[in-house]
Structure formats: C-alpha cells, structure tokens
Amino acid sequence: MKLSTLSGFFIFGILLSGCLTIKETYSFKKNGAGTMTYEVAFNKVDDTFQDVKHDLLPNTWSLDSLAEVISLIPGITKVALTSAKDHQGFGLSFRFESLTSLNHALSRILLTDSTEVFSYFRKENGVWLRAYKADRMMISESFVNKARGERQVAAMLSQLGYEVEMQFPKTIAVAYTGAEGMISGRKNKTLNMRATFQEIAATDQPLSATILLD
Length: 214
Description:
Blueprint: H1 7-16, E1 19-28, E2 34-43, H2 50-56, H3 60-71, E3 76-83, E4 89-96, H4 99-110, E5 121-124, E6 127-130, H5 141-146, H6 153-157, E7 161-167, E8 172-177, E9 180-184, E10 190-196, H7 197-202, E11 209-213
Parallel strand pairs: 1-7
Antiparallel strand pairs: 1-2, 2-4, 3-4, 5-6, 6-11, 7-10, 8-11, 9-10
Helix pairs in contact: 3-4
C-alpha cells in the first residue's frame, strides 16, 4: 500500500485516539468457491469523539456503491452490507464461485483503477498463494485536510491493524506468511495473519502467504 494512501487512516488514529482494524475473512471450498467478508471496525472510540465517528461512518456510501458494482461481477452472489456490533464499523460480504471472481471483486474493493484485476489468490500445483495490493482511501478527504500538520503519525500507525482470516477445506500442512501468522481452528484449517499499517507501509507484501494443505 502506498504511504500516501494511508493518510486517511492516520487521521482516524489522530482524531479518535484509538484503533481501527480492517479484516478480510474467507471460507474456501475445494473448488475455489467460498464466501468473503470485508469489515472496517472502530475500536476504543471515546464518547468525546462520537460526532467525529458519525462523520466518518457515512463514508460507507462508497461501500454501498461498491456492493452494487461487485454484484454485477460474474460469479459473485449474495452481496450484502454489514454493520459491526454497536455500529462501531461497517463492511460487506459476498459469495464467489471461483478465485477468478474473488480476485475481480477484491480488485474493485481495494483498487481505485476500475479496470485492473489483481491476482490476490491463486492456486499453483496444489499450493494456495495469497498476495496483497491496495490503494483505496477509506476516510473522507475533509478529514485528511483537517489533520494536515499533525505529528506523531508513526505512533498511530502501530495502533492500526489489518487482519486476514482464511479457512480452507483441508488441514494446513505448512504456511509461510509475510506478516505475523497463526494456524488455528478445527483441525488446523484456518490461517490468521495480522500486520500494522506501519508494517504495510514498509513492506511490499506484508499480507502475502503461501499455503500447502494436507
């Protein structure tokens, strides 16, 4: 992710003095079909900043329009907007019939170029490969403008997290990740990865992974 793209997230940390976590959750079938949920959760929001939070949340309009775009992608069904507990966040979910359709949908969520389709997931000789690329702003430009000149941005970066949870149809034999990772779940079928935005800004593929199933 480009450093300039992160500026919107910087603002959130500075204004709310709390944490923001983005989470991608996947459940894969053997044929590459499955479900995906993309969530933006606000944590530790102080009551003093409730007005600010509500100004931020209307940015879900972008997810609303994205949901409409994604619903038109071949192989994508059951597109729905989601709301985090206590309205402390927002997101969307959908079903995909193949990794091709999933990659198309993820490209629309994470990239501003409406024509690019990035290979976030692929399978080669039985090995699952996950890559990462994003350049979409999540916070409104007005908040970027308000907070220009603020300091201690680096400290805020370490409080902003990005998580990826992938549940596979078979036990994970081994996994190599570009970020902090853990194999868990029933029969060790789930891989969890987490990186801070500080790590994402400094690394090309912080949320990449190579997964071999039994």
